[in-house]
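Help: why these numbers?

___
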Amino acid sequence: MTALATRAATFFTDSRGDPRLIVLAGVAALVFVAVHVVQIFDFYLPSGQFKIVHVGGTILLLMLVAAAHARAAASRIVHLGLALAAAVVIWYVLVEHQALTRQRSFLPNDTDLVVALVLLALAIYASLREWGWVVSTIAVVGLLYGYFGQWMPEGLLHHGGLTFKRLVGYTSIPYFQGLLGGLSELSGGTIFPFMIFAAALQATGCVTFIMQMAYRIGGRTRAGPAQIAVISSGFMGMVSGSSVANVASTGALTIPLMKKVGFKPEFAGAVESVASTGGQITPPVMGLAAFLIVGMTGIPYGEIVLAAVFPAVIFYAYLMIAVHLRALRFDLDASEQTTLVEEFASPDPVLVSCLKHLHFFIATAYLVWILLVENMPGRAALEATGLILALFVLRELALSWRGLRAVLGNTLRLIGTVASDGALRGAQVAVVVAVIGVLVDILAVTGFSQKLSFFMLELAGGNLALLLVVAAAACLAFGLGLPTSAAYILVALLGAPALVQLGVPLLAAHMFVFFFANISAITPPVAICCLVAAKIAQGSFFKTSFIAVRLGLPGFILPFLFVIHPEILGIDAGPLEAAFVSILALLGVATLNVVLEGYLLRPLAIAERILLLPAAFGLIHPSLWASLVGIALLAAVAARQWLARRPAVRT
C-alpha cells in the first residue's frame, strides 16, 4: 500500500535493479509521458484508443518496473511476460478499434473476450501490487455480484444477472466501459498531468522549500515539528494525489522529530496522518479530487475550489490549535531545538529564499489562474510543468553557469527525472482508478446504486438528519482502505443521489460524501494512513488511529455543517457571511478539542468541561442565539482560567 510513496522516486535510480531493464522502463516512461502530452494538446487519438494507451501503458510500465527490480530470475521473467501481454492488448485494441466500435459493439467475438479478460487480469494484478488487496478484492466482488445477481435475495441486492459475454464487455471492450470508461479518460487527461507537475515540484527543489517555509512559520513554536508536519503536509497533500504517499514521504522526517521533542509515538503518527489527509481537501488542487467532482457533477472547477477554502482553513487551524494545546499540556518546548535548525533551517533570509524559488510561485500562480479562467486542467498542469522547468533552468544558468555542455546535460537529466518519476506516480494512481471503474460501471448497470439511494431514503423515512447519519456511515464503510480518488468515486455514486433527493444542494451533497471518503483514511479499523504512520513512529496502530480521529474531528463534523450551514461552502452567501459562519464553526470544533484534551490555559476542572460542551455545540448550531450562548460560555471559562493563572497580588 505504500508503494506510491516509497518507490516512485527511486525506481529509476535504484542501483540494485537490472540496469538494462531500468533503462527500458525509463524509455517506456518517457514515451508514455510524450503520448499524453501530445494527446492533451492535439487530441490526435479517438477517446477509446487513448484510454487503452493510458490504461494498457500504465500496466506495461508497472510490469517493466517490477521486472527491473525483481530479485529472482523467475519473477523477472514473469513480469516481462506480463508487460508483453499488456503491449499485445494495446496493439489489438488500437488495430481493431474501428471494428470494435462500429461492427462488434454489441456482438464481441471470442478474441475480443480473451483480450478483455487478459486486460482485466493484468489490471487487477497491477492494482494488487501497488495498493494491496482491498481495491482488487472489491472489484472481484463486484464482478461476482454482476454475474450471480439473480441468486441474491429479493430486495436491495437482487438483479436479473449479466451474461458472461455482457459482463466481460462491461469491463473494457467492446463497450469501452469499466477499465476503459469515463474515469480512465479523466485519469489520463487530468490526473496524470498533475502527477507530472508534482514530480516537477519535487525535482526543482520546491518540496524542500515548502519544508523550510513550514519551519519558518511553525518551527519555532512550542509544538515545533508538529506544526511543521501540519503546514508542510497541507501543502504537499494538495498536489500529491495520495494521503498515504504524503505520510510516508514527509512523515519519515517529521515523526521522528516529534518524538525527539517529547510527543508520544502515537500522537506523532496521528498528527502526520491527519495533516496528510487534510491535504486532499485543500485548494487549489485538492489531491486531484476536485477534478473528479467536476466530472461527477458538472459544477465548474472554480466553484468547487472556492467552496473548499473555508473548510480547509477550519481543518488546519483546528489541527494547529490541537498540537499547540498538547505541547502546553505536557510542558513541551521545541522552540530552541537545534535538531530542527539542522533539518529545516535555510541559510538564506526569507526574501532571498523566496526569490531563489520564484519558479514555484510563478508556476503555481499560473496554474491556479488558468484553472479558474479556463476549464482545461490537464493542459494547465502541463503548461505549469513546462513553465516551472524552464524557470528553474534559467535560475541555474544565472546562479551557477558551468558551460553549455553541463547545462544541456543537466536539463536533459531534469526532464528525464520528471518524466520518469511523474509517469510512475501517474501509473500507480491510474491503475487504481481504472480498477474501481469496473466496480462503478457494474453497480450502475445492475441498478444497485439507484436502489441503494432509494433504500437509504426509505431507511431514513424522509428524515434528513437520519439520512445524513446513514450516508456518513455508508461513506466511511465504502471508503475504508481505498485511495482518496477511488473512495470519492464510489461514495459519490452510492451516497450523494439520496442526499440530493431530499433537497441537499448538489455541491453540498458531493462535498459531504467527499469529506467522509477522505477521512476514512484515518478511521478505524483500516485507517491506512495511520497504519503507515504507526510503523514509522513505532507506536500502537489502534492508539494512533483513535488519536487521529480526535485530531481529525473537523473532517467528521464539517460535512454535517455543509448541510446545516451551506454558507461555509459559499452557497447562497457572500464572503463575509461565509467567513463569519466559518469562524463560529472553528470555535466550536476547537472547543470540543479543548474538552477532550482537558486543557485551555491550564488543566480544566470537571465543571469547566461540563460548561464547554454546550458551548461547543452552541457554536456549531445554526441558531445565532445558540452561537451567542456558546461564545459567552467559552469566554467565561477562558476568563476564569486566565484569572486563575495570574499571580496573587500581595498587599
Summary: The mean pLDDT is 85. Residues 404-445 form the longest helix (42 residues).
